[in-house]
């Protein structure tokens, strides 16, 4: 083969290396975020408090070191403005409520199932600050929408919505609702939506940079195509990580509020039964972990959060009874 000629795959490799170089440069320029900090009482404060109150604050500080570790924030999230993401979420939430109200699908303030959700939220919200410095300033809101959809979400800024379908079709107990609500709160507290927007911006920058680089070298838009494909796979990978992270953080929040973390296992068993064990895409292409994998991960984390639940119940961990739902056998 003539030494001046290169096989077609060398062009692709060069473009891929160009895309990787652009990504590396962009990530290197992103400032390191402030690490998430548990809001723990300081030693100086304890010196000025009565002994009983100081002891309570010390116990609270110690409890912050237990449970699920506070995840570190991604640098990529800093590419998007938290204030703007929360403002957009609030606007979208308002539009959703307006639309639901016009269709008679927005639960009235005194509707018992909505009051049930609000009671659970009131217990969970005080424990959210461990995972976000911003949550204290959020104007939390809870609404129930009449729909057969099996869905619930918490938008950035603390905007909570549940659909009647997820409660009714899964016959959720309070503990199971708390697992869902804690999971969705975790997405907002850990700024997964903000990180998603940052990823989109990073992918756009990488795509444009690689495209320009490739065209200069005479490869057409091959670099842009490669960068775009790589960014899509990266987004899927991050999303699976977000879901697993939210499962664990949500359990931690719910356990501290006095809800049984074992309900998370029962919840996903119910979800699997509802799906008939079918209809899920392969795990490596899915934006959510497979039910079996999810249940295994949750089960492995129970030793970290069960002591939190036991303390909230005022009993020793070994004295806790099995979790009895309204479906299937109890979970020990």
Describe it.
58% of the residues lie in helices and 4% in strands. It has a three-stranded mixed sheet with strand order 1-3-2, sandwiched between helices. A hairpin with a 3-residue loop joins β2 and β3 (159-163). The protein is mainly α and 332 residues long. Residues 1-16, 34-48, 206-215 and 218-238 have low confidence and may be disordered. It has eleven helices and three strands.
Number of helices: 11
Radius of gyration, in angstroms, nearest whole number: 23 Å
Principal-axes shape call? globular
How many β strands by DSSP? 3
Main sheet attributes: strand count, strand direction, barrel closure: 3 strands, mixed
Which percent bin holds the helix content? 55-70%
Which structural class should the secondary elements be placed in?
Answer: mainly alpha
What's the rounded overall pLDDT mean?
A: 76
Strand content: under 5%
Going across the major beta sheet, what is the strand order? 1-3-2
Q: Termini, distance in Å? A: 69 Å
Unreliable parts:
1-16, 34-48, 206-215, 218-238
What is the string of helix and strand elements?
HHHHHEEEHHHHHH
């Amino acid at each position: 083969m003539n030494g001046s000629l290169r096989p077609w795959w060398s062009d692709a490799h060069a473009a891929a290396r160009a895309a990787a170089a652009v990504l590396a440069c962009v990530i290197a320029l992103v400032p390191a975020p402030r690490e998430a900090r548990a809001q723990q009482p300081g030693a100086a404060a304890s010196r000025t408090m009565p002994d009983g109150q100081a002891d309570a604050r010390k116990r609270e500080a110690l409890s912050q070191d237990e449970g699920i570790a506070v995840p570190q924030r991604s640098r990529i999230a800093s590419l998007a403005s938290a204030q703007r993401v929360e403002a957009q979420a609030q606007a979208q939430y308002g539009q959703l409520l307006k639309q639901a109200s016009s269709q008679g699908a927005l639960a009235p303030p005194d509707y018992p199932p909505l009051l049930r959700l609000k009671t659970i939220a009131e217990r969970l919200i005080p424990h959210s600050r461990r995972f976000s410095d911003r949550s204290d300033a959020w104007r939390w809101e809870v609404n129930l929408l009449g729909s057969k959809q099996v869905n619930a979400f918490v938008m950035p800024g603390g905007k909570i919505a549940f659909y009647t379908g997820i409660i009714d079709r899964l016959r959720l107990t309070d503990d199971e609702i708390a697992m869902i609500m804690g999971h969705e709160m975790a997405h907002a507290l850990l700024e997964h939506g903000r990180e998603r927007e940052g990823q989109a911006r990073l992918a756009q920058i990488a795509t444009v940079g690689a495209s320009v680089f490739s065209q200069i070298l005479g490869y057409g838009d091959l670099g842009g195509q490669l960068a775009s494909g790589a960014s899509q796979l990266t987004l899927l990978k991050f999303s699976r990580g977000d879901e697993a992270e939210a499962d664990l953080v949500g359990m931690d929040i719910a356990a501290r509020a006095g809800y049984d973390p074992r309900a998370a296992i029962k919840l996903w068993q119910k979800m699997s039964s509802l799906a008939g064990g079918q209809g899920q895409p392969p795990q490596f292409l899915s934006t959510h972990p497979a039910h079996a994998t999810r249940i295994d991960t949750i089960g492995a984390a129970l030793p970290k959060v069960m002591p939190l639940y036991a303390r909230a119940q005022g009993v020793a961990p070994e004295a806790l009874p099995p979790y009895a739902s309204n479906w299937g056998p109890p979970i020990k």
